[in-house]
Design brief:
Blueprint: H1 3-10, H2 12-16, H3 27-30, E1 34-37, H4 44-57, E2 61-64, H5 69-72, H6 77-80, H7 83-89, H8 100-109, E3 114-117, H9 122-125, H10 133-137, H11 152-165, H12 175-200, E4 204-207, H13 210-213, E5 228-235, E6 246-250
Parallel strand pairs: 1-4, 1-5, 2-3, 2-4, 5-6
Helix pairs in contact: 1-4, 4-8, 11-12
């Protein structure tokens, strides 16, 4: 599939008239073992960039935050060729993620890549009421630092970030659990990326939100050994927090006020 076709699939001619900063993967990304491609989930142009990078890199494996392990096992090149059927098989409409039309071109850009899911199953979230994140994650928890608390300053910063992300509306007693969920999601992504690298030899591309891709405390910070490159994507000149090897900018997506539901 050509890059022009990928763009048209995602955005359409009218949206493509908007100013964009297109940039293919630099040599540092092409030489990496694992490449994290961050996003703001509902920004269509971020997904265009992801699809373009995947088309250029032709990774041996794709890891998606949006898929569980069970969902990823259903993906085949034949299924990718039928986007409507693929959305049904993955039960995408019930997943809570933005329109599948935004994500399908990423799969289609490397249809023969091994697909792994790194999504935290919702059923495991209920376990947080009674067990630790290390117990939920399993025997490898120590490899991803889930067996010990965060430094006090990082815990405080992460709780503040969760409070702001939920429009200053969460009860403060819920904030530690929200940080734990974020840590679990980071660890699931890091583990899946390493499994993909071990299985295929790489390169591996990870599709995830900017918050999980940040270099300071996201999934990349849990990976030691393989060469990692991280792309973050901002909007309207505002870079995502946390540090990245490269940040690209795009116009903001049209979206309702995310805090309206809390008022």
């Amino acid at each position: 599939m050509s890059l022009t076709s990928l763009r048209n699939l995602l955005l359409g001619a009218a949206v493509l008239a908007a100013p964009l900063l297109w940039a293919g993967p630099p040599p540092e990304a092409l030489d990496a073992d694992i490449v994290f491609l961050g996003e703001i989930h509902d920004n269509p142009q971020h997904h265009v960039v992801q699809a373009e990078w995947v088309a250029a890199m032709q990774p041996k494996a794709l890891v998606f935050e949006m898929l569980t392990e069970a969902q990823a096992e259903r993906v085949t090149p034949e299924l990718i060729a039928d986007p409507g059927r693929m959305a049904e098989v993955l039960e995408w409409e019930a997943s809570g993620w933005p329109d599948f039309a935004l994500y399908h071109p990423i799969f289609a850009a490397a249809p023969d890549a091994v697909v792994l899911g790194a999504g935290l199953p919702r059923a495991r979230l209920g376990d947080l009421q009674s067990v630790s994140i290390a117990e939920i994650f399993g025997p490898e928890a120590a490899l991803f630092a889930l067996d010990r608390p965060l430094p006090d300053d990082q815990q405080t910063d992460r709780e503040a970030l969760q409070f702001a992300a939920h429009c200053d509306a969460l009860p403060t007693e819920m904030l530690p659990m929200m940080v734990d969920i974020q840590r679990l999601r980071d660890a699931y992504l890091a583990r899946a990326a390493l499994q993909a690298l071990d299985r295929t030899g790489g390169p591996v591309v990870v599709i995830t939100g900017n918050g999980h891709a940040r270099l300071d405390w996201g999934a990349p910070s849990m990976i030691d050994g393989p060469v990692v490159f991280v792309l973050g994507q901002g909007e309207n000149g505002v870079d995502p927090e946390g540090g990245f090897d490269l940040v690209l900018d795009a116009p903001p997506a049209e979206r309702p006020d995310p805090c309206a539901a809390f008022r």
